[in-house]
Amino acid sequence: MDSDEFRRRGKEMIDAIADYHDSIRDRPPLANVNPGYLRDLLPRAAPEQPEQWDDLVKDIERTIMPGITHWHHPQFHAYYPTGFSYPSLLGEMLCQAIGCIGFSWIASPASTELEIIVLDWLGKALGLPEAFLTSDASGKPQHGGGVIQGTASETLLVGVLAARTRSVKKLQEKNPSLSVQQAMDKLVAYASDHVHSAFQKGGSLAGVRTRTLPTDDEFSLRGDSLKQAIEEDIKAGFVPCFVCATLGTTSFCSFDNLTEIGPICQENDVWLHVDAAYAGSALICPEFRHFANGAEFADSFNFNAHKWFLTNFDCSCMWVKNRAALITAMSPTATPAFLQNAASETGLVIDYMHWQVPLGRRFRSLKLWFVLRLFGITGIQNHIRKHVELAKRFESYIVNDDRFQIVAKRHLGLVCFQLKGDDELNRELLKQLNASGKLHLVSTELEGKTVLRVAICSAQTEEKDIDFSWQLISQTAKDVLSGDEEEPSKISGSD
Ligand code: PLP
Questions:
Q1: Is residue 259 a part of any domain in this protein?
Q2: Is 88 part of any domain?
Q3: Euclidean distance between CA atoms 21 and 257, whole angstroms
Q4: What mean pLDDT is reported for the chain?
Q5: What's the order of all strands across the beta sheet hosting 316-320?
Q6: How far out from the chain centre does Cα 437 lie?
Q7: What is the mean pLDDT of residues 396-412?
């Protein structure tokens, strides 16, 4: 493919992408294929000779699309949203077109410098404590700063590793005969029992023991619970090292109490990481900033712009107050000769390879820059507020129907509910809804019982879509309660 053909095919592809999104309602939100379906549709080996573009394009609809779960379908209510917008996609295209790998400043100065600037912009726009930025209001350089990681899980791992390095160093200063392994064996990381499994994964990969703690009636980790666990562990000879507080848990979108947890972390010299993977986007709206009260106590803060911030995967934004702590943990060995350069030696530049696990990194700040500039803060606020209003609308349907109950307080764009009665009813309701081919949702568990979650995900979702989802749920519930196995086929699409 030469550049002339690329121009032609590229324009066709842009049209196909716009058509896909314009007509997404015509597709089922959940893929309906059996495991291994694609093996039967594709040849056993790669073609020896080049194929024709048109043949390739035909195969997208024939082979790939049947196996796609359409995350941007208005009736996709599973998990949490994943970001999509045309400005972000165009930024992503440019990122891939430039194709630089900005591991050090000199490897592509614009990549590093835009990331620093955009994360400072974003930190300000979300109302994060000023210490997370690279400079204060007067422009004076500070010790903090932001970095774009791939995912919240990577960010958690990086946070645990930074905390581990800091704690091991302190333990060895107190007791120089202690080996690194002996020091590590003492460390404990804490989180609520509703924390994302990325916490246990990060702890396990970092070799740090993890402990989950009970929460209050609103699934929020409170100070007392943490204090008690820390005191018990200190008494038993362990060393508290890391706390992951969640703003917007995956199951219920509940919020840990940072104003209570923060001071306890400070008193005990424990690294406080805030995982706001989903809910962090809402901080763009002043009326939701109270959820982050106490963030000034945090050592690191993370939200996934690729969830609810109109930005395509991957774009997980992390800020630290003390970047030296991160760099010490992430660059434990000497830099090889081929990565050394004069700019790094001045100490005036950021080399992001020392802020993350991999060496290579994409120019991800481009798409975030496109999003911030082309939507503006107001445009993103409108998107968040609209989703919250849509969730309220859905919640009101549940609240006003005696057959259902709300299970967790709704704070943002997630509604958690159950059909009153046996767990079997809820499992059946979930099964029938997903089998309808018209809506997709997933469940979570509370005390061993199924809880249905409706998250507002697609940027295209409108009131009529919420009404359609509700009617489908209501009708299916009627069938389930009456023992009628028939699929709720009477309700047609929401367009
Ligand atoms: N933390 C929370 C609160 C989440 O909701 C999720 C995913 O939904 C994660 C962490 C993991 O995110 P990632 O896929 O970016 O690792």
A1: yes
A2: no
A3: 39
A4: 95
A5: 145-149, 316-320, 300-304, 271-275, 239-246, 187-192, 209-213
A6: 26
A7: 97
Q: Inform me whether the pLDDT recorded for 493 exceeds 70.
A: no
User: Left (φ > 0), alpha (ψ -120 to 50) or beta: where does 78 sit?
Assistant: beta
Model confidence at 69, pLDDT cuts 50, 70, 90, reads: very high
For residue 146, list its beta bridge partners. Answer: 319
CA distance 163 to 270: 8
User: Per this entry, what is the length of the chain?
Assistant: 495
Hey, which bits of 43-202 come out as E strands?
Answer: 145-149, 187-192
From 79, 149, 153, the mutation candidate for ligand 1 (largest count of ligand atoms within 8 A of CB) is: 153
pLDDT at residue 492, as a whole number: 54
The closest-lying atom of ligand 1 relative to the alpha carbon of residue 195 is 3
pLDDT exceeds cutoff 50 at 167: yes
**Ligand 1 centroid to residue 299 C-alpha, Å:** 19
CATH for 305: 3.40.640.10
User: Does residue 130 lie in a domain region?
Assistant: yes
Cβ neighbours for 276, distance < 8 A, ≥ 6 positions apart = 246, 247, 248, 283, 292, 301, 302, 303
Q: What is the extent of the structural domain holding 160?
A: 100-361
Q: Is a pLDDT exceeding 90 seen at residue 262?
A: yes
How far is it between the farthest Cα atoms of the chain? 75
Q: Please say if the pLDDT value at position 157 is more than 60.
A: yes
- Residue 461, both tokens: 């979702």
pLDDT above 60 (res 428) = yes
* Whether the Cβ atoms of residue 9 and residue 1 lie closer than 8 Å to each other: yes
Number of domains forming the structure of the chain:
1
Confidence at residue 489, expressed as pLDDT on a 0 to 100 scale: 46
Q: b/e map of 281-314 (b: 16 or more CB within 10 Å)?
A: bbbbbeebeebbebbebbbbbbbbbbbbbbbbbb
User: Is 242 domain-assigned?
Assistant: yes
306 C-alpha to ligand 1 centroid (Å) = 10
- pLDDT for 344 equals 83
Among 349, 354, 315, 359, which residue's Cα sits nearest to residue 149? 315
pTM above 0.70, yes or no: yes
- Residues having CB within 6 Å of any atom of ligand 1: 79-80, 151-153, 196, 198, 246, 248-250, 275, 277-278, 304, 316
Query: What is the whole-number distance in angstroms between the Cα of residue 194 and the centre of ligand 1?
Result: 12
